[in-house]
Specification:
- The chain is α/β, with parallel strands linked by helices.
- It has 15 helices and nine strands.
- The strands form three sheets. Strands 3-4-7-6-5 form a five-stranded mixed sheet. A two-stranded parallel ribbon has the order 1-2.
- Helix 1 crosses helix 2, helix 3 packs across helix 4 and helix 8 packs across helix 11.
- It is globular and about 70 Å long.
- The chain starts with 6 loop residues before the first helix and ends in a 7-residue tail after the last helix.
Length: 370
């Protein structure tokens, strides 16, 4: 089953799927190829498709030479950027280790150099680093002492404590997000009672670097994809990540149940993206879907992301333990600390600051309000 309606999206889905459609030869026009290239780029798939073409896995599709060259250029750009970011990660890991701080790379930082056959095939975004909660601020202070620059200011101290990651930094022109947990403390996808650092394995090519084992990696990738879905945006690249791990563990019938057992209360959030990714492995995988495959438009552009983010914030606040935590978070959503207001709006005091708070309150509408 190809879960898209538009021809270009269907084409890209078939190009990255693990099953073939080689019987029907198709020569793309420049317009079709450009649209397919743009859709693939939006979903982080151009290097992977270029790799498939070079592996003579054409799927019956003939590309104009100009688009093949554009793919080659993006492949090379991804290779250079990934190597640069990997170098920065290794430097951070080394200086952190000297202070006894253990780091696990997350998402693209881990996958590009472990799951994929070449490091250029999985574009890396920011450097997402998991640190033990009691060491996350020590890592931040260490990076600041080495020349890192703060990029954001937390809304409040309690926000910094309950969010998945503390405020981001820039180091060597790369954005660093130190994570203290996988999701906000009030999210049902957060693993509150599991030591994440016990679910790791070394990368074969880099034995000194630990990443999540396949079970935990699948949990993180699936729930991260589900969060993106709830925020109104999806990427086929996320589903390809999951599909590659599922294919790797295809002989283990207990693999998916073991992932679900990590957090039974989040069964839907784990299973739905796994089932969506399974469509890349098996044309008949669409039966008994936990949730319908996301709307195609979510793969083109985020849909109502601002509104959906506010809804997610409310759910995460309601999920926090203790009435006091909920109350403080709500108050700080409406009345952030002055340093945040200065960072966001410029320095204001007195009546001007009060008016800014009123503006913020007016703009934070509850779900369903007009």
């Amino acid at each position: 089953m190809v879960p898209f309606q538009r021809d270009i999206a269907k084409l890209v889905f078939e190009l990255i799927s693990f099953f073939g459609h080689d019987s029907d030869k198709q020569t793309l026009t420049n317009k079709e190829a450009t649209e397919a290239f743009n859709f693939a780029a939006r979903n982080g798939l151009v290097p992977w498709i270029y790799h498939q073409i070079n592996s003579e896995n054409y799927k019956g599709v003939q590309w104009p030479e100009s688009i093949r060259q554009a793919m080659r250029m993006q492949y090379l750009q991804t290779l250079v950027m990934n190597q640069q970011k990997w170098k920065v990660f290794r430097e951070i890991k080394a200086i952190a280790a000297m202070e006894g701080i253990r780091i696990i790379p997350l998402k693209g930082t881990a996958l590009a150099f472990s799951l994929y056959p070449e490091e250029a095939l999985r574009p890396m975004g920011d450097l997402d680093l998991l640190v033990q909660p009691h060491q996350v601020h020590a890592l931040r202070d260490l990076l600041l002492s080495k020349g890192a620059i703060p990029l954001h200011v937390p809304i409040s101290g309690i926000h910094d404590k309950v969010h998945a990651h503390i405020s981001a930094l820039s180091w060597q022109n790369i954005m660093i997000e130190p994570h203290q947990r996988l999701f906000a403390l009030g999210s049902n996808m957060n693993l509150n009672n599991i030591d994440l650092f016990e679910h790791t394995e070394p990368i074969q090519a880099y034995p000194d670097v630990e990443i999540f084992d396949d079970r935990m990696q699948t949990y993180h990738l699936a729930t991260h994809a589900f969060k993106g879905f709830k925020m109104g945006g999806m990427r086929l690249g996320w589903l390809l990540d999951i599909a590659l791990i599922l294919d790797k563990n295809s002989n283990n019938k207990d693999f998916i149940p073991s992932v679900l057992n990590l957090n039974p209360r989040a069964r839907k959030e784990i299973l739905a993206p796994i089932q969506w990714a399974s469509l890349l492995l098996n044309e008949a995988a669409a039966s008994n879907m936990e949730l319908p495959f996301p709307n195609e438009m979510m793969f083109h552009k985020e849909q109502d992301a601002g509104k959906k983010h506010k809804i997610m914030v409310i759910h995460e606040i309601m999920g926090l333990p203790g009435l006091g935590n909920k109350t403080r978070m709500v108050l700080r959503e409406f009345f952030p600390q002055k340093s945040y207001m200065d960072h966001r709006y410029g320095k204001h005091r007195g009546l001007a600051l009060f008016l800014l708070y009123l503006k913020r309150i007016a703009g934070f509408r509850l779900p369903g309000s007009q």
